[in-house]
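Sequence in, structure out. Go.
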Amino acid sequence: MAAAKKRKLLMYNGKPLIKCGKRIYYGNLEDKLILVLDIEETKANKDIDVSTKIRVQVMDNTGEFGKGQVYRKGERENLYKALDIGEWWLKDALESMTA
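Output:
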């Protein structure tokens, strides 16, 4: 029987990024909070689509995956800015829960 191949996750600053359609989950899935990025608008730039509107949410991860209570939310105009602020929000929220 062939052993199942382990799928490598895309990592950003030591935490996994998981993409499901137009939604991106960031953070350790064992943590109480995760970051959810929803791509709301894109525009064509040469031969690729570029995100132009991203909804950023720090969400509770204790119930059904991706459907928890939202603790903090906002919008940014590109993926880099969304992930940059979202990572900071997530880190701050997780630290305040342990304090």
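Check: The helical segments are 79-98. The mean pLDDT is 87.
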